[in-house]
Design goal:
Helices cover 63% and strands 6% of the residues. It has 13 helices and 4 strands. It has a 4-stranded antiparallel beta sheet with strand order 3-2-1-4. Helix 7 (135-151) crosses helix 8, helix 8 runs parallel beside helix 11 and helix 9 (203-235) packs antiparallel against helix 11 (244-272).
Length: 325
């Protein structure tokens, strides 16, 4: 398919020379970047589409939409590059590790055991190796597969095994993001919450620190809420197996939101990765950068509007002095 690769027909995309599509560093807007001698031209895709009257439903219009969506998953695209699979098939363009695949498989087996043996408590943190190496647990899982096959009117318990394996393949991405994103934001919240020392702090810096702490907690609440929702749905294993297609879409929607969020957070997480837990001279610029990242994303709308309004007011020139006689 032509739309599987980054291909545009309008001469504006070729006459200026090789173009790179990425997001603007300032506000994340999808842009086209072209080298013009020693200078670089950066043009927003929406402005280009409007300027050259490219309809949304034309081949170039559809491709520009796909490029903008693709930049949630890749850093940049050039002419002829393959579009990421997320925008083409819904499948992820990255792979979870075998560790995360096994963790997802174990989580589903524990959920199935809790359904089949409601009077027996099975810890959610049981690893797959422990299930496979324990004869009692292995026998319980096999019975659970048989019960599930009967409940789902499937001819063979192996059909349940296949359904579980397919669902585990989707949930492995969530387990990977739990470790590579959620755990890192949790660590960041603890790191910022524990900042201390560094001498007296003026009121402006104290406000910045309090705001960053508050916004980090709000961000963590939103991110962890996604995992809580996923875990609650996954715990109902039989409901998921009865509606495998719907549950797959549900998982992928959360997976893509979390993955895109992790990409956006990466500079902030990297900024704090080796930071000392003290309020020294290097901490304040880092806190300011973190506030600039968090405020437009997590500050309540009315509060953010108020902040913008006050900044706009500060930028207005002072009123002219009028001579009074």
């Amino acid at each position: 398919m032509a739309e599987e690769r980054c291909i545009l027909q309008n001469p504006v995309f070729t006459k200026l020379g090789p173009a790179t599509f990425r997001r603007a560093e300032s506000d994340g807007t999808p842009v086209m970047v072209v080298a013009l001698g020693e200078r670089v031209a950066v043009m927003a895709l929406t402005a280009l589409q409007r300027e050259f009257a490219i309809p949304d439903d034309s081949p170039d219009g559809r491709m520009l939409g796909l490029i903008a969506e693709s930049l949630n998953y890749v850093t940049a695209l050039q002419a002829g590059d393959d579009l990421p699979s997320e925008v083409l098939t819904g499948q992820a363009s990255w792979d979870p590790s075998p560790k995360h695949q096994r963790r997802a498989a174990a989580r589903l087996r524990v959920g199935l055991l809790n359904w089949a043996e409601p009077d027996v408590s099975h810890a959610d943190g049981i690893e797959l190796d422990a299930i496979e190496s324990d004869p009692r647990l292995r026998a319980s899982v096999q019975r659970a597969f048989e019960q599930a096959a009967a409940a789902l009117t499937l001819a063979d318990p192996k059909d349940v095994v296949a359904l579980i394996a397919d669902l585990a393949g989707e949930l492995a991405y969530i387990e990977a993001l739990r470790e590579t994103f959620l755990a890192r934001v949790q660590a960041l919240a603890g790191q910022i919450g524990g900042l201390a020392g560094g001498g007296p702090v003026n009121s402006e810096r104290q406000t910045t620190l309090m705001q960053v702490r508050r916004l980090t907690r709000l961000a963590l609440q939103q991110i962890s809420g996604r995992f809580t929702e996923l875990d609650a749905q996954t715990a109902e294993v039989m409901a998921a197996l009865r509606n495998a297609a719907g549950h797959r879409s549900f998982i992928r929607s959360h997976r893509d939101w979390l993955y895109c969020s992790r990409r956006a957070w990466e500079p902030v997480l990297a900024d704090w990765s080796a930071a000392a837990p003290v309020l020294d001279d290097t901490a304040w610029p880092r806190l300011a950068r973190t506030y600039q990242f968090l405020a437009p994303r997590f500050m309540p709308v009315q509060e953010w509007t108020s902040v913008l309004g006050s900044r706009t007011a500060r930028r207005k020139p002072p009123p002219e002095r009028i001579m009074q006689w």
